[in-house]
Amino acid sequence: SLELTAPRVAEKHSGWQRTRNQPAPIQGEKTRTVLGPLATPVNDGQPTPQTSSTLIFIDDATAMAQQAQLMKMASLGALTASIAHEIRNPLAAIATAGELIKENAQGDAETTELTEIISRHATRVNRIIDDILQMGRLKTHRPQPIEITHWLKQFIDDYLLTHGLTRGAIKIDSDSDLTVEFDPDQLHQVLCNLCDNAIQHSITDVPMPWVVVKASYDPAQNQTLLTVSDNGPGVPADSVTELFTPFFTTRNAGTGLGLYIAQELCASNQATLAYTDQGGFGATFQILFNDPQQTLIS
């Protein structure tokens, strides 16, 4: 029955039967459902009250939504890259001038402190520029099937080595035989950002693991999930809605672009990235992957 195979469509159909008004698309929905009578019996040129059946048209807008996402990222990347290049040249001059002042002010504690402030902020702005330039490269992606369990093990081994972390700081919990469709380099970038955030906000004076990376299959949604959880205090309630907003950060040294870029990369690969509230028991970020049987736009 329709209730078992497509409960959301069944709910819309039931509402249409009562009101004969076209149902409004649910926010975030990538399908458009149009309902209408398949046949209307006619008696002496006048339609009869009852209809024989209902024809349901379901328009899958996934490919169109992905194409729009790619076009948006291409336009945004071109604009931000142009601005970033214009900022980098005077920034280099400011940083160099600060270093020269520091060298000529040996023994002057106040001047040295001021030049260190210049250096710290110049470094932070330079990181922001690097992130902005990175946004300009989001317009191309090469999705391919990834056996997630093997890929995760290799990623975590490399991550622990390059970040000087003890083996066991990050635990992998993964179901077997899980395959996702994603650009491997972009997945590496997304997970690296999520692990960076998790480590930075974890409580590290307790037994390991501090971070858990879990891959699992959700039969209810027929999709694969990848979650990154830490043992920190979680995200303040008043900051949750701003997490994926460009330049929003809760750290003085943060650029506020990492989660935004990660979410855009997921969207370009037809995946979703969201924050899950754990009630003050750490933060969890979840990637919901697209069905690998569907075709992505190159």
Question: Could you characterize the architecture of this molecule?
Answer:
The chain folds into three domains: 2-60, no CATH class; 65-135; 144-288, Histidine kinase-like ATPase, C-terminal domain (Heat Shock Protein 90), CATH 3.30.565. Helix 3 (62-104) runs antiparallel to helix 4 (109-135) and helix 6 packs antiparallel against helix 7. Strands 6-8-9-11-10 form a five-stranded mixed β-sheet. Strands 1-4 form a two-stranded antiparallel sheet. The protein has a two-stranded antiparallel ribbon with strand order 2-3. The radius of gyration is 26 Å and the shape is globular. It starts with a helix and ends in a 10-residue tail after the last strand. A hairpin with a 4-residue loop joins strand 8 (211-218) and strand 9. With 298 residues, it is of the alpha+beta class. The protein has helices at 2-5, 7-19, 62-104, 109-135, 148-162, 184-201, 258-268; strands at residues 31-37, 42-43, 46-47, 54-60, 144-147, 170-174, 179-182, 211-218, 223-230, 272-277, 283-288. Residues 26-32, 38-42 and 294-298 have low confidence and may be disordered. 44% of the residues lie in helices and 20% in strands.
